[in-house]
Write a structure and sequence with these properties.
Blueprint lengths: L17 H12 L5 H4 L6 H26 L6 H9 L1 H31 L5 H8 L2 H19 L3 H9 L1 H22 L20 H7 L1 H5 L16 H30 L10 H12 L6 H35 L14 H15 L1 H4 L3 H33 L12 H22 L12 H24 L16 H4 L10 H16 L1
């Protein structure tokens, strides 16, 4: 998610090292829910991870750094898109970001539910429980509402929970997975895939393979979140790109090695399932006589997910709260509790997450539900990235004199190459996400495509209708969201006032004339 409510430090001394910023980005992006989905590809998974890192991850990071430092005002992608194309596009971008996160919550919580299932004493029973749709649904709801309750208590409460979550729930399990997995292979364990480097180049002629591979772009999303720290690095023109390069390589290496570990240990026909990560742990722990460690790792994974959910419940809600106070949502959504948290927005989102989670009950399987929701979340996030890349390029022309403490190197040619590469890669990934994957049973391909496109169209239409019906009195006089440059100049191009707004403006002018 784009940083939307954090202000970058104003030319302060360097407080973050290059390696430190790289680690922040790795923790922000990395999720162990990714490798099971891509283990189906075996050695060729490395190709997709590296391709996405070069043409998506790095462009996202560099472009977001320029936009964040040029427009440090609150709003994030709302600010960037609004400055480039008008408030309507800004509101659409932030709404799609919130919608994507809402859909993403059940996905990552499914992973947590499966992790919790493997904390029992009997592996066969645990595996059966992890595939039970009702169990998954109830676990998703329980953990999400718990995370909402924690986040509602304010920054101090949820930062305590999140502080060690990334290390305990992601870094340590990832290190254990990779170390034990390769130790299994070196010590004589039989690999479940052919170790033939000819298989490292995937079959790009298969559209269904591309559809499943497109989910890698969502696994890499979120790198823009830490672009706010670009001015906290010494010599940001050199230090920030270096930190991004280290983070991109580090994230890609961990994902590649973690995916290959699952491919080595789990039979190919069982990869792709959300259970395959836990099955990998079970198999390697049993191999080394450490079966007692499986529940511990399962708990650690669940803790990591809870910590991440708490943070992401607070962040997007706070961003939308700022946008609401700027006049884009009714006053009902502008209230905050005694801890300064937008409780009403958080509750509305919690009910929306609960409704999305119910989809698991009606899909043919947990895996099918996981796949279609993952594709929908990825599709929405990719639309946001398309808007972000287009905004960065267009703003170089629309506001060329705007101070940019960090610039994508290479002038106009550089922004076209970096931003253009990200835009084209995002567009290709979006298109391929519409192709039903053959690896997972989803029922009718027509039903899959119709459901995916229909839901996306509904979600995209909703903010446009809401934007058209906004009222002038919705804006809170105390809003900290500044007007867009065009609005400050009195230029409303791209945001044609509705009849309601014209009448309100006419009444205001008449009142001023009377006075």
């Amino acid at each position: 998610m784009a940083s939307s409510d954090v202000m970058p430090s104003a030319k302060s001394p360097a407080t973050i090292t290059v390696v430190g910023l790289a680690m922040l980005n790795i923790v922000a992006v990395l999720s162990l829910g990714a490798p099971p989905t891509e283990a189906e590809y075996g050695l060729s998974a490395a190709f997709f991870y590296l391709f996405a890192a070069v043409f998506f991850l790095i462009p996202v990071s560099l472009v977001a750094a320029e936009l964040t430092t040029a427009w440090p005002e609150k709003g994030g992608v709302f600010r960037w898109a609004g400055e480039a194309f008008g408030a309507r596009w800004g509101f659409l971008a932030i709404f799609l970001l919130i919608a994507q996160v809402t859909i993403w919550f059940p996905l990552v919580l499914t992973f947590a539910a499966i992790s919790l299932a493997y904390t029992g004493p009997q592996a066969p029973v645990d595996e059966k429980l992890s595939g039970n749709q009702l169990y998954v649904l109830l676990s998703v709801l329980a953990v999400y509402w718990l995370a909402t309750a924690i986040a509602a208590r304010g920054v101090a409460a949820f930062t305590r929970i999140a502080k060690w979550g990334g290390i305990v729930g992601t870094i340590i399990p990832a290190a254990a997975l990779i170390t034990l997995g390769f130790a299994y292979l070196i010590s004589g364990g039989t690999p479940q895939i052919r170790l033939d480097w000819d298989d490292a180049i995937p079959d790009l002629s298969s559209l269904s393979n591309l559809a499943l591979a497109a989910s890698i772009f969502l696994f890499y999303s979120g790198m823009e979140m830490n672009a706010v720290h670009v001015q906290d690095v010494k010599n940001p023109d050199r230090g920030y790109p270096l930190a991004i390069l280290i983070a991109a390589l580090g994230t890609a290496v961990i994902l590649i090695l973690g995916t290959l570990t699952i491919a080595f240990v789990v039979p190919r026909n069982e990869t792709g399932s959300t259970q395959s990560l836990l099955i990998t742990y079970i198999d390697v722990f049993n191999w080394f006589g450490l079966s007692w460690a499986t529940p511990i790792l399962a708990c650690a994974l669940a803790i990591g997910v809870l910590a991440g959910i708490v943070t992401w419940v607070a962040g997007p809600s706070t961003a939308l709260h700022a946008v609401a106070k700027a006049g884009y949502l009714p006053p009902f959504y502008q209230a905050a509790n005694k801890n300064g948290m937008p409780l009403r927005i958080m509750l509305v989102q919690a009910f929306a997450v609960s409704a999305v989670a119910v989809v698991f009950v009606f899909m043919p399987s947990v895996e099918a539900a996981f796949q279609i929701l993952s594709q929908l979340a990825g599709l929405l996030y990719l639309v946001v990235y398309l808007i972000m890349f287009a905004s960065a390029i267009y703003l170089r022309y629309r506001q060329p004199d705007r101070p940019r403490p960090y610039r994508v190197p290479g002038g106009l040619v550089g922004i076209w190459i970096i931003g253009g590469a990200g835009f084209v890669a995002s567009a290709l990934a979006l298109a391929s996400s519409l192709v039903p994957p053959s690896q997972i049973g989803i029922g009718s391909p027509a039903l899959y495509l119709g459901l995916l496109v229909g839901l996306a169209a509904l979600i995209i239409t909703a903010p446009l209708l809401l934007f058209a019906r906004r009222e002038p009195h919705w804006r809170d006089p105390g809003s900290e969201v500044a007007l867009f440059a065009a609005e400050a100049r009195g230029d409303r191009s791209g945001d044609t006032p509705t009849p309601r707004h014209r009448r309100a403006e006419a009444d205001a002018e008449a009142d001023a004339a009377d006075e």
